[in-house]
Amino acid sequence: MLTVEWKGNWSQPHIRPFGPLAIHPAAKALHYAVQLFEGMKAYLGVDGRIRLFRPELNMIRMNSSSERLGLAPFDGQELLKCLARLIEVDRRFVPSAPQSSLYIRPTYIGTEPTLGVTTSNEALLFVVVGPVGPYFPTGFRPVTLLADTVHVRAHPGGCGGYKLGANYGPTVYPAKKANDLGAQQILWLYGEDRLVTEAGTMNTFMLWEAEDGRLELVTPPLESHLILPGVTRQSILDLTRRWNEFRVVEKNFTMGHLVKALRAGRVRELFGAGTACVVCPIERILYEGQRLDVPTMKAGAPLTNRLLKELSDIQYGRVSSEWAPVIC
To answer: Structure pTM?
Structure first.
């Protein structure tokens, strides 16, 4: 594991054996959720070399999250150099099985041992890694979502646009309730209009025929901080805009828009996107006692599958791209 301390200045980074952290019981991370993290992966390519995927976007987002918590900024390029060295040391843990990878969890916590809701003058940045298998071990399977009209994940001006631990703990209880009702994830809504925001911990995308008749890929915008600026999200936007095969927009849409479009047969595919799954098809939404069937898999989810293939080809080095820098 990698550890770097901050006490007014950054200390020398250390790579040491994986093990428990020694932390004071009054550390601000334990009491006031002064903690943030990132999710990344390293991929063993078909050429035997190891790649990251757009890691500079993770560094930008991590620094943005640290600013939101009042933690000291760090040099993203220097952290990436440390990450590369850590992965080189732990190279034997990078799996070679298809669609497997080495998960990377950079974490940054306030460690000042004082009670009080103030800036933490001491902090620890650490990174742990571990091998993970394919997200869909038995095939590309769609999920069912519960559209939650009671709980909210984020609100305008809040922290939904930052990758903070405090955003995730409160979702555990609603997620369990969704599981009890037969759904795998929650479709998070916001406001009286019931804006569609995220699907579980994934960004949400919909391919539909818009009201003007044009084929359109839509995902909620980032401006209100209701949405996490996902690396996979940005990559999907960049790829599909490069294809120029349909209109690609970032705009709000509501459950009312979605229900109306489903009933009119205008929805082609609905899917989530994130580091863990790349893309995940959605086949059903439970909403106010209704079971809304989504035709994502009716034609075999061609867009979702194409995105999975094209992004995976880049990540595993089957297609050369500046998005996947070789680190060792």
So the answer is: 0.97
